[in-house]
Amino acid sequence: MAEIRxxxxxxxxxxxxxxxxxxAVAVATAVVATRRLWFGGYVSEAGVSAxxxxxxxxxxxxxxxxxxxxxxxxxxxxxxxxxVLLAAGGVLGTVSGSVSCTAGCPLPPFDRTSVADLxxxxxxxxxxxxxxxxxxxxxxxxxxxxTRSLSLAAFALVAPLVALEGLGMLTVGRGYVTGLIERxxxxxxxxxxxxxxxxxxxxQAWPQARP
Length: 211
Prior knowledge:
It is built from six helices and no strands. It has helices at residues 2-33, 54-74, 80-98, 115-141, 145-171, 176-201.
């Protein structure tokens, strides 16, 4: 039974890295293809129905969501809290990728919003928050020094970015500042998922973490 769990977790780790990489590339492709989103504006604007690469963006978001869930399976032996947080982040990411915001992805307090805008924005924010807390949970529970250091460093980087993004949305709204912070947060989070997944996929990583 333990051997089956090991194989399952390693397979989930490999798939998590692949899904996250593919998802990140798809989202980046959609954003870059939308010229006005190179630096400013929310990444989610690439998924607005009117955009020519909206389907690419949505597929990318679903790939990232799948990566979160799969990583949750891979790190369940390290931290059940992290597994739950990552699974929740994956579900929220699926909602974010499935519900498109309207043009400009308006959010309070500066813009009038629709129900879809609030659902999309709320799901996106909560997914990022869940992933960030999962970094801390893995960092505190892992006995593998590399995984622990990597996760704590990622949390130390991403947590302030998430706080700054929230503050920016409330004070300056949509623009270059919030856009750049959002992109930095997504890049750092994706890199952490891939790095931790690859570490968990290594044969020498088993068994060495807390049950």
